Each structure stands twice: as C-alpha cells, then as structure tokens.
Amino acid sequence: MDILWTGVFALLLIGYFALEGSGIGVGMLLPVLGRTQPDRDRVVAAMAPFVLANEVWLVAVAGVLFGVFPSIEGEVLSSLYPLVVTLLVSWILRDAGLWFRRRLDGHAWRAGWDWMICLGSYGLALSWGMALVAMAGGLSGSPIGLPGLGGGLVVAAAFAFHGWTFLSWRLPGQVTGASRTGGALLASAGVAALPVAVLLAVLAPWLLEHIAPSGTLNVLSVMILPFAPLMLGAQVWVWRTFGPRRAADRVPSFF
Q1: Is the C or the N end of the chain the one with fewer CB within 10 Å?
Q2: Of the candidates 201, 142, 242, which has an alpha carbon nearest to the alpha carbon of residue 14?
Q3: Which run of H or E residues covers position 55?
Q4: Rounded Cα distance, 182 and 46, in Å
C-alpha cells in the first residue's frame, strides 16, 4: 500500500506537468505567437477547453499530499512559502485572464488580460522550477536564489516547447506555421514532465519514510481510488473532443 500511494502521488504530479505544462507554455508564448488580436483569440481558444481538466490533477496532488504524507506537508509548505504564494497568485492571474478577457469589448481590456495570462504563466513555470530545485536540495536554505532561478528557466523552457508543440497539434499550420502529430505532442509532454519525474525518483525513499500509517491509507483507498477512473475518463474525453482543428473552424467567442 505504501508503494501504491507513493506511485499515485508521483503519477498525479507527473500528469499535471505533462498535461497542464502545455497550457502554461501556451500562455508564456501568447505575445510571441499572438501578434494580432485574432491570433491571440485563436491561441487562447485553443488552450482554454483543456485548462480546467488539467488543473484537476493539481487539486488531486494537493489532496494526496495532505492525506498520504501529512508529516511532510507542513514542512514543504512552510519551507516553500514564498513560492507557494507566487504559485497561487500566478494561478489566479492566469485563470482570471482566461475568463475575463472577453467579458468586455475594447483593445486595452483584452490586451491587459492577455498580459495577465502571460505573466501568470511565467510565474507558474518559474515557481515550479524553483520549488523543484529547493526540494532536491532537501528544503534547506532559501528557495529563492541562482540555482532555483536556473531550475525555473529549465522548466519554463520545457513548458514553452510543450506549448508550441501543443499549438502545432491543436491548430496545425496556423499560428506556429507547423503541424505536429500526437506522437510529437506525447514526446513534448515527456520533456515537460522530465524534471519532476527525476526529482520524484530521487525523493522516493524519503517519501516512503514519511507516508501515513497503513490504516489511513486503507481508508483513503476506499474513499478515493474508485473515483480515479472517472478522472481519467474525463481527461480522455476532453482531449478527444477538443482535438486538432482546421483553419476554417470558428474560434469560440467565450474566451
């Protein structure tokens, strides 16, 4: 049971990086690939249907961390407090930009929220990279510094590559000028998830040492695991429903 729940935690965190890394990367690239308002509308509309489904993985990660690793939850949050706050603020800014950019007409209104999407996405990528470096260092010292910044840039680059590949798959031949297959998207997802996968492999013994008692794990298994197929099924439905679009397809006005 210990190995099972450690594996579930690892799968959820890797899944978040592999899936939501594309949306974060698209947000980072929005000013570059969306040079005109119609292009920005097309880019945002391409990523928006996937965002909520991908963010469910992060919510599940937080729930498993609190329930399965209660002894390290407080240590992680307190040691990474500045980064946790930055992550939450960036998350709110990015999602607010997605929801509010089309609520009113006007170039300045949309442009302002487009920048919120971009800044929030950069905040997410850099904060995650710095958090990974801090956890790899045993949470000793300040999580903010040159090594952390280097890790943030690596994660940001991986997310940007994943976002570019995602748009080349979702809108073939349009904003990126390239067309990518599902295999290429899967490979870029692997690139986006590689940093956290390596960290989890290194931290696996530490996680197993701090896992909750078997009684707690048994209760969590009964309460949570039966719902896992529903989450996976919903994810599959989203990606199959909102697959690659032709250039002639209309961009929804909702986002």
Answers
A1: N
A2: 201
A3: helix 37-68
A4: 15
Taking CA atoms, 186 is separated from 169, 178, 180, in Å, by: 11, 16, 10
Q: Are 197 and 16 in contact (CB under 8 A)?
A: no
Question: How far apart are the C-alpha atoms of 196 and 246, rounded to whole Å?
Answer: 34
Q: Are 235 and 19 in contact (CB under 8 A)?
A: yes
State pLDDT tens for residues 178-207.
999 999 999 999 999 999 999 999 999 888
Instruction: Report phi then psi at 28, rounded to 5.
Output: -65, -35
Q: Who's near 16: CB < 8 A, 6+ residues apart?
A: 54, 57, 58, 61
pLDDT at 245: 60
pLDDT at 19 over 70: yes
**Rounded to an integer, what distance in angstroms lies between the CA atom of residue 120 and that of residue 115?**
8
Are the C-beta atoms of 58 and 20 separated by less than 8 Å? yes
Question: In the block, which residue shows the tokens 């996405």?
Answer: 121
Tokens of 219: 């209760």
